């Protein structure tokens, strides 16, 4: 459910006043994650690595209150559910967008991920969850990347998690993950906490 709230009634009131009028309110943090455990889990279960990473993102974000609010066009909205957006290549050579509802149940999330992304690939139609706070993702696995900074537009204030190809070195597998967020939604401390939680989830999934 999506509901407009008064920023003054939340702990984001001051930040909302400061950053909604800023011409560049987006902040990007980058952290190198250890993903060897997740890669082993992917190979053991046959589940796609990127799907597992999307689930880990939702799991970590679901534990942080700030992810359930979002500034949009000068207003602040509260949500009771999260979704993870993924970009897929379609059969016409273009791309489409899929919002995957987040659930703690990994098998259920995996099923939704597969069904929605395969449908988008075949039909060239995007799917959206308008009543959920959507975390954007973008996986550019054609190469290893150190950092990604997304474009800023006032039409899209959602948090965004981006990554390239993971790196293997000896017995270690690492992945640099960029996290971009709107400063009215959360502060740097909240974002840093999210990245720490994401690393924990990746290591324990």
Structural class: alpha+beta
Question: Based on DSSP secondary structure assignment, what is the total number of beta strands?
Answer: 10
Indicate the radius of gyration in whole angstroms. Answer: 17 Å
Major sheet summary line: 7 strands, mixed
Residue share in helix: 25-40%
Strand content: 25-35%
Q: Which regions contain 5 or more consecutive residues with pLDDT less than 50?
A: none
What value does the average pLDDT take? 95
The helix count comes to 5
Order of helices and strands: EHEHHEEEEHEEEEH
End-to-end separation in angstroms reads: 28 Å
Q: Characterize the overall form.
A: globular
Describe what you observe in this structure.
- With 205 residues, this protein is an alpha+beta fold.
- It is built from five helices and ten strands, in the order βαβααββββαββββα.
- It has helices spanning 13-19, 36-45, 49-61, 106-123, 188-204, and strands at 2-5, 26-34, 69-72, 75-79, 82-89, 95-101, 133-139, 160-163, 167-169, 172-182.
- The strands form two sheets. Strands 2, 5, 6, 7, 8, 9 and 10 form a seven-stranded mixed sheet that branches. A three-stranded antiparallel sheet has the order 1-4-3, with no helix packed on it.
- The two termini are 28 Å apart.
- The model has no long low-confidence stretch (mean pLDDT 95).
Q: Could you name the key traits of this structure?
A:
205 residues; alpha+beta; 3-stranded antiparallel beta sheet; 10 strands; 30% strand
Describe the secondary-structure layout.
Elements: E1 2-5, H1 13-19, E2 26-34, H2 36-45, H3 49-61, E3 69-72, E4 75-79, E5 82-89, E6 95-101, H4 106-123, E7 133-139, E8 160-163, E9 167-169, E10 172-182, H5 188-204
Parallel strand pairs: 5-7, 7-8
Antiparallel strand pairs: 1-4, 2-10, 3-4, 5-6, 8-10, 9-10
Helix pairs in contact: 3-5
């Amino acid at each position: 459910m999506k509901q407009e709230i008064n920023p003054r009634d939340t702990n984001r009131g001051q930040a909302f006043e400061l950053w909604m009028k800023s011409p560049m309110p987006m902040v990007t943090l980058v952290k190198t994650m250890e993903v060897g455990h997740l890669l082993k889990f992917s190979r053991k279960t046959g589940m796609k690595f990127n799907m597992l990473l999307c689930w880990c993102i939702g799991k970590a974000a679901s534990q942080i209150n700030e992810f359930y609010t979002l500034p949009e066009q000068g207003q602040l909205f509260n949500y009771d559910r999260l979704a993870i957006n993924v970009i897929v290549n379609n059969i016409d050579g273009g791309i489409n967008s899929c919002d995957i509802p987040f659930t703690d149940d990994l098998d259920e999330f995996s099923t939704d991920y597969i069904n929605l992304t395969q449908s988008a690939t075949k039909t060239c139609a995007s799917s959206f969850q308008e009543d959920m706070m959507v975390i954007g993702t973008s996986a550019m696995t054609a190469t290893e990347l150190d950092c990604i900074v997304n474009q800023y537009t006032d039409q899209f204030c959602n948090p965004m998690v981006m990554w390239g190809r993971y790196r293997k070195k000896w017995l270690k597998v690492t992945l640099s993950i960029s996290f971009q967020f709107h400063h009215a939604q959360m502060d740097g401390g909240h974002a840093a906490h999210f990245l720490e939680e994401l690393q924990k989830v990746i290591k324990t999934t």
